[in-house]
Amino acid sequence: MKISDFEKLKNEGTEKLPSEERRRFLRFGLAVTGVFLGGSVLSLTSARNASGVQEKKSAAGKFPYKPHYTMVLRQNRCIDCERCMEACVRTNHVPSYGYRTTIMEQNRAAGDDRDPLFMPVLCNHCNRPPCVRVCPTTATYKDKETGIVMMDYKRCIGCKTCMAACPYNARYFNEETRAVDKCNFCFDTRLSKGKKLTACAEACPADVRIFGELTDENSEAYQLIHKPDRKVWVLRPETGAMPNVFYIND
Amino acid sequence: MSNMISIEDFSDPKAATPGVSKTTMLLMLLVAIGIGCGLYAFVIGHHHAYNNTREMPWGILIAGYAFFAIVSTGLCVLATVSHFMGGNPMSSLANRMVFLSIVTIIGGFSIIGVEIENPHRMLLYNMLSPNFTSNIWWMGTLYGMAVGFMFVEFFSILTARYKLAIGLGILGALAEIMANTNLGAVFATLSARPFWYGAQLPIYFLASAVLSGAAAIIMFTHFAYRIRGENMNSAVSEGIRSAGKVATLTLILIIVATSWRFISFFVGGTELGRVAAESFLSGPMAVNFWVFEITVGLIVPLALLLASKMKNPGLMTVAAIMILIGQFFQRYDLVVAGQMVPQYSGWDNLPTYFSYIPSFAEFMVTFGGFGIAGAGFLLGERFFGRVFMQSGHH
């Protein structure tokens, strides 16, 4: 049958299409566009690296990690109560002049009466962390087990190249330790002690910060970013850092 | 012992006039104040003494370090090209260039030594836990090696072991070039900073090194003869003419590179890079850029060098000083502009540009670096003057 012959057929309408068929069609379309594809959220940061992961090889070294920690931020739920920031300060002894995580605010355009936008930010624990590459003394490094970008304070010479290299302004210089400090997903203060959540994720009353595992299909974080029709984004993808902090509106 | 050498064999009383002594003392005072300010910052904490912030962690001290490191590379490379290739008129200036290359890198090291927060940890962990993907590690290590090579090279020159000196000179120059290109890569490989990111910068740094080195040797040689009240002999004049030609060529290269670098920001790329570039054309960097980088640092010296026909050392020295001023501003503007556009632009009512004005301590440390270069030059003329004045004959 030629395409021109289709035009002569009577339109059956979509009413009688089984919903299973509709879903399959939708999924197919999303898969073709590669934008909202379920299965590998990595395609959002770099399609080429996503295929690299499927073939168990990646330019970013050992990847994915097990557990491969991630944080999904349901951005539109954030009300700027700052309990995450307070919990972080309390848990990780962050001094008043610095922060490991903060909440950015953006006012709407004039005449738009909606609430301002809020965006929590923290270290993105990148798969290709620019800070780790530039550190002369490996004072900052990507943990081989978890992929968390960590600090060994005593090695830090305070050249601040990592601060210049970070695309997310996630680092500050701690005068007490004389070393750069940053978010480590509460590894030393909570995760290594058996707790499952970071302090900020636990403190958030609006369930904005969903901490979980990128490799665990049962993890809420995994499910949130692998929902087929959901738009997921990362900050500054153009830097090639391949971040592990994802943003959604939910 | 026949190998015994004495400083009296090299010292030049003509470069030890009361005026020179007084100037040397003043420069040493500048060095003392600079080091004092740096130590003060180390003890009290950098955030109390320097105006760097979380958003702009690097400032005039990184720029000052880069400036001296780049001058040092230029001097070392030109010296080695002259020594090694021979028959080059600049070989009459080469011994002085080797010495000044050491002096300027020490100036740079002094600044970076109080710019980083924990130099004591650096000495240890650079060796214990090196990161071979880090340009900072390579830069520090290679500049350190270069100084080592040049120290021994200079000692070999003093003891008339010229073959050894040439070999060490080559090693020193290679280390300096690799260090310089890693210095460029420190900035050029940071994709988070679009104003720095790109393959052009390391070549630009190398061209800047040759330009700065040529300008420095023109200026210092001129002053070396001025303090003695002597005229240059024909060999030295030829050397200065050659350095002038090198400076002219590299000025043209840097004008071309600067033009395309800026045009590229406006034909594509990211907003961060474009906004940073705009700060040069009509924003907070405009005076630094148009007046100091372009006019003082590139256009006028090019015109002066061409007007001098490479025969007027006085005019060429004016051009050389202007080049060095321009070079300092180029380093400063590059370092600052790469960080001044907020990464979260559009959020938190962040300004279009962060502002950064160096603190008193930062200025003093930077001036201290110039003090080291100046005092080092005068002390060199005083104690090794004969080696410099007789150069070109080996």
Determine and state the CATH class of chain A.
Alpha Beta
**Strand order, largest beta sheet of chain A:** 8-1-9
Radius of gyration of chain B: 21 Å
Number of strands of chain A: 9
Structure explained in plain terms:
The complex is a heterodimer of chains A (250) and B (394). By secondary structure, chain A is of the alpha+beta class. Helices cover 24% and strands 15% of the residues of chain A. In chain A, the strands form 4 sheets. In chain A, strands 8-1-9 form a 3-stranded mixed beta sheet. About 10% of the residues of chain A have low confidence. Chain B is mainly α. Chain B is built from 13 helices and no strands. In chain B, helix 1 packs parallel to helix 4.
Core attributes:
heterodimer; A: 250 residues; alpha+beta; Alpha-Beta Plaits; 3-stranded mixed beta sheet; two-stranded antiparallel ribbon; 8 helices; 9 strands; elongated; B: 394 residues; mainly alpha; Formate dehydrogenase/DMSO reductase fold; 13 helices; 0% strand
Describe, in short, the structure shown.
The complex is a heterodimer of chains A (250) and B (394). By secondary structure, chain A is α+β, with helices and mostly antiparallel strands.
Strand and helix layout:
The complex is a heterodimer of chains A (250) and B (394).
Chain A: H1 3-8, H2 19-33, H3 47-54, E1 69-74, H4 83-92, E2 102-106, E3 117-121, H5 130-134, E4 140-142, E5 149-151, H6 161-165, E6 172-174, E7 179-181, H7 199-203, E8 209-213, H8 220-225, E9 245-248
Chain B: H1 18-44, H2 46-49, H3 60-85, H4 94-115, H5 119-128, H6 135-158, H7 162-188, H8 200-228, H9 234-266, H10 271-281, H11 286-308, H12 313-340, H13 360-389
Helix pairs in contact in B: 1-4, 1-13, 3-4, 3-7, 3-8, 3-12, 3-13, 4-6, 4-13, 6-7, 7-8, 8-9, 8-12, 9-11, 10-12, 11-12
